[in-house]
Amino acid sequence: MIQRLKKRTARIGVFAVGHETYWGQFEGLLDSLMGYHEEFKNIVDKNEVEIIDFGMIDTSEASYKALNRIKESNVDILLCNMVTYAISATFAPIIRDANVPIILVALQPRKAMDYSKANTYMQLQNDNICAVPEFTSVAVRLGKEVNDVIIGTLYDDKEVEEDIKVWCDIAKVMHDLKGARIGLMGHVMEAMYDMHADPTAISGAFGVHVPLIEVDDVIKLYKKVDEERIHEKIKVIEENFHMPDPVSDPVTIKVTSEDLYQAAKTAVTLDDLVKEYNLTGLAYYYEGEENSLHRLVSSSFIVGNSLLNAQGVPMCGEFDIKTCIAMLIMDRLNIGGSFAEFHPFDFEEDFILVGHDGPHHIAIAEGMPVLRSLTKYHGKPGSGASVEFKIKEGPITMLGITQNDKGGFKFIIGEGISKKGPIPPTGNTNTRGFFEPTTKEFIKKWVMEGPTHHYALGIGHNGKVIEKIAKILDIECVIVK
């Protein structure tokens, strides 16, 4: 029932390439090829993106003119439509200076030519692959790289449509990383050395800005919240969470009216904070003096943050801005992005519990998420409402972002399976994660890569997609297997 605050979108640049000499030799060929180009744009358009069409580029001169328009358009990726053979001089200026991911797309209108009626005109209409090696060669010689080549047919090719969708999703990630405002509030939990990150390094690696938020900025907004909005938020919480009786954990009790009210008031405050500071996301941790308003408010973020995660605003605990970036990447891929860490193994059934005490991405919950009151937050000050659920059953992906000894960032990616089964009723998210070849062997390989203890958890097997994003960002990346 939770809707995104902002639609996922991107600016996709497209252009066709051809050989100008053909147009005078074969009447109608150019119009025919541009018709196919329109069909190609229809495939792209299915992905709810903005398309910027730079038309036919068939000479070196046309390429230089198009380059200026490409730079001005601020596109997130470029799709080069190989509608027929083209000389590499039509591509060289763009691959050299566009500074944007470029994908070559070679889609034949026909699955095969009718050889009994074949002619040169028909061949040129289906010569989509011919110049691809020439284009990739010139890219290498210029010290650049083509990010991908999509090969297939123009009509009814599900694999092609999926490949284009993947790149549109990647473009949505790149679109929202540009100038994103990932706030930092509070401080690192004492002695968590793996959590520290330099905001300048974050900005340099990901193209985001890191506004520094004071806890008092939250308190100021908290004091302005009116009762009507609190009760509206209580209704939203009641519609989206199940509130059962406690089970086996004495730390948990049925959600109290006081905790529900507090969670709702803080959730409204967080909505206002996001608007006030135009935040794309927030990483926070703050303790405050015992019995203070600062502690009361900062320890009651979990429910509001979980709602915001589902609305596309990654909210991350323990001041972990690196994982907040990972959550943003997963969210813009539309695969979730819950704040997670490893919990106990089950060596009998060969799985490990993956989860955290919040915040979570409730849009990827298996069934309705649970809300419980906790009489204490283990390892942290405070008490109150907390979120518990399993993520959807099926394939899952983990993305951890860490740093090496030189300060450079590193993506650590893993894929597993979420399976049905009971989880501890502790008011925390937990999912039964199964990994190959065995869970123990996988976890050993994971920890040996030097991750932080947190990561973003999403649905589907998306390691290869995230690896492409790392490559675009020029960030070290490993997929643990």
From TrEMBL:
GO cellular component assignments: cytosol
Segments crossing the lipid bilayer: none
Residue ranges annotated for the L-arabinose isomerase central domain, each copy included: 198-331
GO terms assigned for molecular function: L-arabinose isomerase activity; metal ion binding
Keyword line: Arabinose catabolism, Carbohydrate metabolism, Isomerase, Manganese, Metal-binding
Keyword flag Metal-binding: yes
The keyword Manganese is annotated on this UniProt entry: yes
Any GO BP: L-arabinose catabolic process to D-xylulose 5-phosphate
SUPFAM superfamilies: FucI/AraA C-terminal domain-like (SSF50443), FucI/AraA N-terminal and middle domains (SSF53743)
A Pfam family the protein falls into: Fucose_iso_C
Residues of the L-fucose isomerase C-terminal domain: 377-478
PANTHER family: L-ARABINOSE ISOMERASE
Record-given protein name: L-arabinose isomerase
Organism the protein comes from: Mobilisporobacter senegalensis
Lineage of origin: Bacteria, Bacillati, Bacillota, Clostridia, Lachnospirales
